[in-house]
């Protein structure tokens, strides 16, 4: 009998079966328990991101140097976002190669959450800008490791026919996280230190349900190529010529996220300085609450709807245009009722966008073996706007006409994102 016909040893057979399960296109629908874990991780990560971005970093900046608060906020958030540009695809790629018996993604979810939690606690004690920058960069490093892994888990485990629904629920989790951060900002009465502690606790607790019910098949060591630094780094370049749909999807997501970030990045200062709202942190909570309700409603409706009709692009185009409309409302009606209307319209557009665009993105990934890295590259389109938007916002508000210029710029960029969706050919 030839060696080619000899059955593989039990350990090797298990490894091959496990690797097949890890890399196969998913066909079995995911359970409600698994989806709940996914949603909760998104809640915790986004509370850790947006509680500080929307409220606590701004309050901390005011306590250090009130006249220079805009520059401090822009510096801290831009440096953190620059870290996320590298961290998200890097940890996504590392998770693709992880052979832990706990799976490819779960170890990074846990390790990232622990690092970000520790950095949030350290940031609460930072009394100088340099330490704010350092610890916020570590928050971004850890949270992006967890986010890269949990994002890659969706194309790993969720079949295409269920991705709109799961994308909608994940978007709901993201929005609940943003709302949670705003609630923390309102209830701590200006004590950013306590706010950071609450965000840290929420993040650490949020990952536990997913870790206990992760459904994360192990990748064996046998079929992997040897690690080579050059090849690893080259893998982050995904040719637009070879994968044009992936490139257009990346560009449209980047533009829409720039528009969205421009609308919200100076929200605390907009309420304080332009509208003259008496309690800006409470105002952020009200606007975030309206935004969150609309995001959750449209996300859970649009995602399953796109599954049923089997189309993604019309939803993405319409929602991108709606996001742009929110910027126009804020530009021409810089009063409290205008802010309320802008928040509602932004929520309607962004909820549908988050759900359906996420499903679209998972359908244009180049390779099953590199889902984590590829989703990490896609997530750069979420992170890079956090670098670009604060810089554009600083220029617009300080040098180019103020908040009207800021919000009109957001509207124009959002419309460009809607226009380029038509270039994607492989998804209807």
From TrEMBL:
<feature type="transmembrane region" description="Helical">
    <location>
        <begin position="339"/>
        <end position="365"/>
    </location>
</feature>
<feature type="transmembrane region" description="Helical">
    <location>
        <begin position="194"/>
        <end position="212"/>
    </location>
</feature>
<feature type="transmembrane region" description="Helical">
    <location>
        <begin position="377"/>
        <end position="400"/>
    </location>
</feature>
<feature type="transmembrane region" description="Helical">
    <location>
        <begin position="246"/>
        <end position="269"/>
    </location>
</feature>
<dbReference type="InterPro" id="IPR020846">
    <property type="entry name" value="MFS_dom"/>
</dbReference>
<feature type="transmembrane region" description="Helical">
    <location>
        <begin position="166"/>
        <end position="188"/>
    </location>
</feature>
<feature type="transmembrane region" description="Helical">
    <location>
        <begin position="131"/>
        <end position="154"/>
    </location>
</feature>
<dbReference type="InterPro" id="IPR036259">
    <property type="entry name" value="MFS_trans_sf"/>
</dbReference>
<dbReference type="InterPro" id="IPR011701">
    <property type="entry name" value="MFS"/>
</dbReference>
<keyword id="KW-1133">Transmembrane helix</keyword>
<feature type="transmembrane region" description="Helical">
    <location>
        <begin position="281"/>
        <end position="303"/>
    </location>
</feature>
<dbReference type="Pfam" id="PF07690">
    <property type="entry name" value="MFS_1"/>
</dbReference>
<keyword id="KW-0812">Transmembrane</keyword>
<feature type="transmembrane region" description="Helical">
    <location>
        <begin position="315"/>
        <end position="333"/>
    </location>
</feature>
<feature type="transmembrane region" description="Helical">
    <location>
        <begin position="72"/>
        <end position="94"/>
    </location>
</feature>
<dbReference type="InterPro" id="IPR005829">
    <property type="entry name" value="Sugar_transporter_CS"/>
</dbReference>
<feature type="transmembrane region" description="Helical">
    <location>
        <begin position="106"/>
        <end position="125"/>
    </location>
</feature>
<protein>
    <submittedName>
        <fullName>MFS transporter</fullName>
    </submittedName>
</protein>
<keyword id="KW-0472">Membrane</keyword>
<feature type="transmembrane region" description="Helical">
    <location>
        <begin position="34"/>
        <end position="57"/>
    </location>
</feature>
<feature type="domain" description="Major facilitator superfamily (MFS) profile">
    <location>
        <begin position="245"/>
        <end position="428"/>
    </location>
</feature>
<feature type="transmembrane region" description="Helical">
    <location>
        <begin position="406"/>
        <end position="424"/>
    </location>
</feature>
